[in-house]
Design goal:
Layout lengths: L3 E6 L10 E6 L7 E11 L1 H8 L6 H4 L12 E9 L11 E5 L10 E5 L4 E3 L6 H5 L1 H15 L7 E5 L4 H12 L3 E6 L4 H6 L4 E4 L12 E6 L6 H4 L3 E8 L8 H6 L6 E3 L8 H16 L7 E5 L4 H10 L5 E4 L1
Protein name: NAD(P)-dependent alcohol dehydrogenase
GO molecular function: oxidoreductase activity
InterPro entries: ADH-like_N, ER, GroES-like_sf, NAD(P)-bd_dom_sf, YIM1/Zinc_Alcohol_DH_Fams
Length: about 325
């Protein structure tokens, strides 16, 4: 009997109910690949945007009518079941975490990944659920605050959207970097965000955090709720506006800001070379080991309930991360 795996197919761009469970032949690892049995995988806002084919200008790269790969999910954690004959970094039985990247297919029972990709040994101190989400909000926030925003001790940092996947990581990262952290969230999440290390929490329904003259050195817009033009008056003279949500409307601001002292900056973490991403993940694991950073898990669903997980993420009220097991 031929071995099979379960996965989730995206037949066309659309709502969560477009996701379709499928049974596929078990993949066989190539010479440099490992076969992984997935114990947990992330369900992210970016996964939802990919499922919807947003932003539209990304479709030539993703696929015009549906994602070219056609499968859902990027972040994962699991166990190596088999290896190709040229694999040297991993062996059968190793516990690993990482991301499928543009190949997708992490919301599944099994996957084959190149050992030279974004794949790391899973520390025993982390659950599979915690490890599966490290390559989304945690890694992106680390990249933006450390490498792009170059946050320094004493900087005033505003995080727009402090309760989500990126925000919950960003608050912890910025606080440990010695920044004075202000974060926005709903009133119900205020105590949660404060517990992560925010010095000030602003209810976005009651107050505009982007007050003229606020003097923030860095504004990290985790959800793309603002623009450079709305954030600019709240920045310090050499302040940086960071936003990982790229739209056509934001491109002119990123380009034109190079002419001024206040800057709008964007850099897709996923386009960095795997070696660089693995180096960042090593730094993140050190921070986790030293109790300076904790990946936050909001809800865990069964893999068979992926539609419900996508719908919950799309509602926009999650605290931290959502995973399927």
């Amino acid at each position: 009997m031929t071995a099979t795996r379960t996965a989730w197919h995206i037949p066309h761009y659309g709502r969560p109910d477009t996701l379709t469970p499928v049974t596929l032949p078990m993949p066989q690892p190539g010479p440099n690949e490992v076969l992984i049995r997935i114990h947990a995988s992330a369900v992210t806002r970016a996964d939802g945007m990919m499922r919807k084919g947003e932003p539209l200008f990304a479709r030539p790269f993703l696929g015009l009518r549906r994602p070219r790969n056609g499968l859902s999910g990027t972040g994962l954690s699991g166990e190596v079941m088999a290896t190709g004959n040229k694999v040297s970094r991993f062996a059968s039985g190793d516990l690993v975490f990482g991301e499928a990247g543009m190949h997708f297919g992490a919301n599944a029972s099994h996957i084959c990944l190149d050992e030279g990709g974004v794949l790391m040994p899973k520390p025993a101190s982390l659950s599979h659920e915690e490890a599966a989400v490290l390559c989304d909000g945690v890694l992106t926030s680390w990249h933006y605050l450390h490498n792009l925003g170059e946050v320094q001790s004493g900087d005033r940092v505003l995080i727009l959207g402090g309760a989500g996947s990126l925000g919950s990581a960003a608050v912890q990262i910025a606080a440990h970097m010695g920044a004075e952290v202000t974060a926005t969230c709903s009133a119900r999440n205020a105590s949660f965000v404060a517990s992560l290390g925010a010095d000030q929490v602003i209810d976005y329904n009651a107050e505009d955090a982007l007050q003229r003259g606020a003097g923030y050195d860095v504004i990290f817009d985790t959800l793309g709720v603002g623009t450079f033009s709305t954030a600019k008056p709240a920045l310090a003279d050499t302040g940086r506006y960071l936003c990982p949500v790229l739209t056509l409307g934001r491109l002119p601001a990123i380009l034109l800001s190079r002419l001024g002292r206040k800057r709008a900056l964007f850099a897709a973490a996923g386009l960095e070379k795997p070696q660089r991403l693995r180096a960042m993940l090593s730094e993140i694991l050190t921070q986790i080991e030293q109790d300076h950073l904790t990946p936050i898990i909001d809800r865990t669903y069964l893999l068979s309930d992926l539609l419900e997980a996508h719908a919950y993420v799309e509602a926009g009220h999650k605290r931290g991360n959502v995973v399927v097991v």
